[in-house]
Amino acid sequence: QVQLVDSGGGLVQAGGSLRLSCAASGRTSSTYAMGWFRQAPGKEREVVGAVSWSGGRLVYADSVKGRFTISRDDARNTVYLQMNSRQPEDPAVYYCAAGRQGLYTSTALRSSGEYDYWGQGTQVTVSS
Which of 38, 43, 99, 105 is the S-S candidate for 33 at Cβ 3.0 to 4.6 Å? Predict the structure, then answer.
């Protein structure tokens, strides 16, 4: 099993930047596909982006392409979500998640149901 701890959320001005971190403990995160999801009040949880266990496949939601970047530092068992050019529609609770190593297709990486472990979430708010 793996335990995930999300951090880095907070208040950022529209157009500003923020970096979220997801620290993994237990089994190393390098054996898992890692995803970032977000959930705004009254809305369903949606994918922000995900990376396969090897790092060979990266997928992003259309709404964040070109603004958000996922990276993983397997030596530190940490996955990051760099968020630039924050928009008013970005506020939400952001969650990282870990899924099985075989998670690779774009469709699977984007599906929250494919992930087995979840962080506690970190709140991100954007001020206009």
Answer: 99
